[in-house]
């Protein structure tokens, strides 16, 4: 019994957080808000055209902030919610009026955006624009949940900024603008892709509104017998399925292509590793339904044909890479004489090569300076004899000739190599060990070189 009480208390506690009865607005007020949004005359149509131009500018300049602003201004949500609401309460007059106004709004939107892109000096498709041409199942889910949020907001007293948020999330305006871009540039794939995205958003926002109306128990506006209800349900189901299926296929294609590109990049990073050559650029994707991988190498010349055959065999072992075409280019090759063989190098490749060469030149210059310093020290030691001769004649009168030199000695048995500083001297007579030690110390101090060996030529 205690467990049953605990269960009911927990159930009531959770239910209290989802209870809407105290927050629901008067049903007539909600219905009137829907009716007002359906109307598409006067200020609404003017605001719509202005919003279309703003959205088109945002797409043209690739500015997300401008596009969001246009979506906030646009009154397109009204007719879509009206269709869903009318379907939920079986108000067929409201459905017809909403559908007619939505068709008019969509037509004006596409015509206005087509006009804009016809006169716009920028005709290149940007990322924000191209993103509206490939709808997926995720767009279906966004439209559905956006519609649920919209009807709950309309039915409640505290509407807040839900409706503008739904307009931004579902992005109704950009697809219509992209459709206009497709017509203006006569790229019909853009037109059909973008318009299909608009249909997805509209249909699933409307369907979610219908579900919300049923859940919130809005009163049926007119009496409808069961046969008509079933017929309407069948029509709705057919429209939803027909709209949903292409998006499912597009989603599958998108995920498949994503796996292919990821696997291709991983394959290039792990397999195209050579001691004297490296990958300069790489590209992988799907074009017209065919997978391709393109790799450009730089460095020591490699037999491209043999490499392609070997890599293609390895690709066949990967299910995502199997069947993809592989193109390998020797962008810049270096032969035995370090001669560059240029083949269709892009400006970015030149920049990379230039930067690499500059770094290499700087390292070589540093090595050259270091070698120059070593040579300078070597030659300075060997040229020191004439400078020391006057001093030696006074301090060590027995010395007749002197020559300073650095020599490399190799120990025959061990092969050990050592550099030895030697002072070759010719004497008038002989020098005892003390005199030889003083001469050695003198030479070490004056030359700044330690460990000088004295070689007395007799």
**Coarse shape:** elongated
Question: Main beta sheet, described?
Answer: 4 strands, mixed
Strand order of the largest sheet: 1-2-3-4
Structural class: alpha/beta
Oligomer: single chain
Low-confidence stretches: 334-345
Q: What is the strand content? A: 5-15%
Mean pLDDT, to the nearest integer, reads 75
DSSP helix count? 16
**Whole-angstrom Rg:** 42 Å
Count of individual beta strands: 7
How far the N terminus sits from the C terminus, by CA atoms, comes to 123 Å
Helix-strand topology string: HHHHHHHHHHHHEEHEEHHEEHE
User: Roughly what percent helix?
Assistant: 55-70%
Name a few traits of the molecule.
458 residues; alpha/beta; 3-stranded mixed sheet
What does this structure look like?
With 458 residues, this protein is α/β, with parallel strands linked by helices. It is 64% helix and 14% strand. The strands form two sheets. It has a four-stranded mixed beta sheet, covered by helices on one side. α3 crosses α6 and α3 packs across α10. The longest helix has 46 residues. It is elongated.
Helices and strands in order:
Layout: H1 2-18, H2 27-38, H3 43-61, H4 64-73, H5 77-89, H6 92-119, H7 127-130, H8 137-155, H9 162-170, H10 173-184, H11 188-215, H12 226-271, E1 277-287, E2 290-300, H13 304-315, E3 325-334, E4 340-342, H14 347-382, H15 385-395, E5 399-410, E6 417-427, H16 433-447, E7 452-457
Parallel strand pairs: 2-3, 6-7
Antiparallel strand pairs: 1-2, 3-4, 5-6
Helix pairs in contact: 2-5, 3-4, 3-6, 3-10, 4-9, 5-6, 5-11, 6-10, 8-9, 8-11, 8-12, 10-11, 11-12
């Amino acid at each position: 019994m205690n467990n049953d009480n605990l269960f009911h208390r927990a159930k009531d506690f959770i239910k209290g957080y989802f209870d809407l009865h105290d927050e629901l607005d008067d049903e007539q007020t909600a219905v009137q808000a829907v009716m007002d949004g359906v109307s598409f005359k006067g200020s609404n149509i003017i605001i719509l055209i202005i919003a279309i131009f703003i959205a088109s500018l945002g797409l043209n300049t690739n500015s997300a902030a401008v596009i969001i602003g246009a979506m906030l201004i646009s009154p397109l949500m009204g007719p879509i919610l009206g269709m869903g609401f009318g379907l939920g309460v079986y108000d067929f007059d409201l459905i017809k009026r909403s559908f007619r106004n939505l068709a008019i709004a969509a037509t004006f939107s596409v015509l206005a955006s087509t006009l804009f892109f016809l006169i716009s000096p920028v005709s290149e498709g940007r990322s924000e624009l191209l993103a509206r041409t490939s709808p997926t199942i995720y767009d279906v889910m966004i439209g559905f949940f956006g519609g649920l949020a919209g009807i709950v907001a309309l039915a409640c007293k505290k509407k807040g900024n839900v409706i503008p948020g739904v307009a931004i999330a579902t992005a109704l305006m950009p697809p219509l603008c992209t459709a206009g871009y497709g017509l203006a540039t006569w790229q019909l794939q853009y037109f059909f892709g973008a318009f299909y995205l608009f249909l997805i958003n509209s249909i699933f926002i409307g369907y979610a509104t219908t579900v919300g109306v049923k859940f919130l128990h809005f009163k049926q506006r007119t009496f409808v017998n069961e046969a008509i209800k079933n017929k309407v349900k069948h029509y709705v189901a057919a429209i939803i399925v027909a709209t949903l299926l292409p998006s499912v296929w597009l989603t599958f294609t998108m995920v498949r292509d994503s796996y292919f590109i990821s696997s291709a990049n991983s394959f290039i990073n792990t397999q195209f590793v050579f001691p004297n050559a490296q990958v300069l650029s790489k590209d992988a994707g799907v074009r017209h339904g065919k997978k391709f991988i393109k790799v450009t190498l730089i460095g020591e010349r490699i037999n491209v044909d043999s490499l392609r055959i070997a890599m293609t065999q390895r690709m066949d072992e990967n299910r995502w890479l199997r069947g993809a075409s592989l193109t390998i280019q020797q962008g810049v090759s270096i032969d035995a004489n370090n001669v560059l063989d240029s083949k269709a190098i892009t400006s970015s490749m030149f920049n990379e090569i230039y930067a690499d060469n500059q770094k290499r030149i700087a390292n070589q210059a540093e090595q050259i300076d270091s070698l120059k310093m070593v040579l300078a020290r070597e030659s300075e030691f060997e040229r020191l004899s004439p400078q020391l001769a006057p001093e030696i004649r006074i301090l060590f009168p027995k010395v007749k000739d002197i020559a300073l030199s650095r020599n490399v000695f190799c120990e025959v048995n061990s092969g050990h190599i050592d550099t030895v500083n030697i002072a070759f001297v010719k004497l008038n007579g002989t020098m005892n060990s003390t005199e030889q030690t003083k001469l050695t110390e003198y030479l070490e101090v004056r030359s700044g070189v330690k460990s000088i060996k004295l070689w007395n030529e007799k």
